[in-house]
Amino acid sequence: MSSHERQPKRHPADANHFVLTFENNRLASELFGQFDQNLKLIEDRLHIDARTRGNTVSITGDVQATNIARRALDYLYGRLQNGGQIEVNDVEGALRMAQAADDQLVFPALEKKAKLTMGQISTRKKTIVARTPTQDAYMRALERSELVFGVGPAGTGKTYLAVAHAAQLLERGAVDRIILSRPAVEAGERLGFLPGDMKEKVDPYLRPLYDALYDMMPGDKVERAITAGVIEIAPLAFMRGRTLANAAVILDEAQNTTSMQMKMFLTRLGDNARMIVTGDPSQVDLPRGVKSGLVEALQILHSVEGISVVRFKDVDVVRHPLVARIVRAYDAEGAVDSGRDG
Q: Which residues have CB under 8 Å from 268's CB, separation 6+?
């Protein structure tokens, strides 16, 4: 159903109304989406009415909602003008960022009533744009801090963005190598009980890091870099006794480190190195009674100069919308259980 055939939504007499005109007809068509699907999404999220005619869109609704729509559409059109593309997730991200701007949340990228800008990470293969205010803050923390903790639920992009940032630093020549690591003990499994040589034993644990790398860099380049040692993917145990200099170093699934392992890892930081630690403190797989090194580090290091901590929440989940609802349900149940234990 085209936009001009939809039944108009009911709005109060003081509803805001304006018309946006986009000079390039082709880009306007891409902005609106096939069968106006992007505008339909904006309508549904903001409870406004959007009607197209050629390269113009007429928007009616609550003042706050229409202002959010204007900023999101202006941003998305600018992205198309710069040669970018728009997918459904990009529209969702623009709405989240525009909402944050309207609420006057304090993020360096946002100015009240001004044009919307978002943090981004660019590699030769792709450009990644922040889809939530927390992702934006995370990208900026990665640029300015030597040690960054990105913590929160699955699906928020904390590991993916960390690998993207490391790939960007390598391509810029800001570091000489990338080191990606995970604790090799998860969900009660230990390496010694797994078949195969050491690489075959650890690869299943490290697969998400491989996947993110191949998304950022051409496959043949990744393979050559791994062979040459420019990219190293290894379990955390392999970090002991080393000094990691001139490198972008990522520790993923850090909630499954012990206190001793975390201290060992953090003290490997060498000259001209960047270190990123990611994990979800609510998903600890360590044996009962063993304290998570990530949880302890966040308590001990929260005020140390040069360290940034970015905390993601369920609202930052950028996977299927159902994932965010699942995370909230588990968090709520966990809070209930804690109350019972108390």
A: 239, 242, 243, 244, 249
